[in-house]
Design a protein that fits this description.
Blueprint: E1 17-28, E2 31-37, E3 49-55, E4 61-67, E5 77-83, H1 91-96, E6 103-110, E7 124-129, H2 133-146, E8 152-158, H3 167-175, E9 180-186, H4 203-211, E10 219-225, H5 226-238, E11 246-251
Parallel strand pairs: 7-8, 7-10, 8-9, 10-11
Antiparallel strand pairs: 1-2, 1-6, 2-5, 3-4, 3-6
Helix pairs in contact: 4-5
Length: 253
């Protein structure tokens, strides 16, 4: 996932290092997960991201920011997910050229606003569109590892069932019955489960999700494209959630 509205403002301790690709997994038809081993591992919070820099033989450089999908505490290796953009500069390299063993320049962790940890409590509502799930997945994994008693609902919007990122892992986590509910909103496909939808995220969907929470909602995290974040935020506001409880992250090419 490439971020556009989170400023890359690294502190003095954040420096470039060469992460080595140790595994590549095709997560959906257009999204691949890349796992990196870092020579200098770092601690991070769920929701943070890294900058990735590619340098061409002629010296030209391209830099993008990618959210970390891993759960905090697993910082010896980190995972990012790269959505293939047909007109992109960096994503085609990852999808078509990058291989296990390659070293990629990166720095992190970055970002401190769109973050959550089990100590922050809940209940929480997570709403992701496409690869906008990535930072939310880090939160889901952090919850499972360190705060499974926190009530949480995740609404993931995807075009088709096959496009739902981390679909099988999310279903498996939901089946653990620790207070995580997962809802898939498929915009170009029929729902596959009774609790899922075959439409875009809307007010009615959000209201139903909120009604299932055992306590008053504490926070909402929304991530996706600019248009998705706008429409999902409108739905959340229309459902009665105060502005101060909503945090958003937007991505783009």
């Amino acid at each position: 996932m490439t971020l556009t509205d989170t400023p890359a403002a690294p502190g003095p301790a954040v420096k470039w290092q060469n992460g080595r690709i140790v595994d590549i997994v095709a997560s959906t038809p257009r999204i691949k997960s890349f796992f990196f081993a870092l020579p200098e591992p770092f601690d991070f919070r769920a929701g943070q991201h890294v900058d990735v820099r590619l340098t061409a033989p002629d010296g030209y450089q391209a830099m993008r920011s990618y959210s970390i999908a891993s759960a905090p505490g697993m910082s010896d290796r980190i995972e990012i997910a790269v959505d293939l953009l047909d007109d992109g500069e960096v994503s085609p390299f990852f999808h078509e050229v990058a291989a296990v063993g390659d070293e990629i320049e990166m720095r992190g962790p970055l970002g401190g606003y769109f973050v959550w940890g089990p100590k922050d409590g809940g209940p929480i509502l997570l709403i992701g569109g496409g690869s906008g799930l990535v930072p939310l997945m880090s939160m889901v994994r952090a919850r499972d590892a360190g705060g499974p008693s926190v009530p949480a609902i995740l609404i993931l919007s995807a075009r088709h069932w096959k496009d739902a990122l981390y679909r099988d892992e999310l279903i498996a986590l939901e089946k653990k019955q620790t207070g995580l509910s997962v809802v898939f909103a498929l915009t170009r496909d029929e729902p596959k489960r009774p609790q899922d939808y075959g439409r875009h995220v809307d007010e009615a969907m959000v209201r139903k999700a909120l009604s299932s929470l055992p306590d008053a909602l504490r926070q909402v995290f929304i991530c996706g494209s600019n248009g998705f974040v706008n429409s999902a935020s409108d739905a959340v506001l229309a459902a009665g959630v105060p502005t101060g409880a909503i945090r958003t992250e937007r991505y783009g090419g």
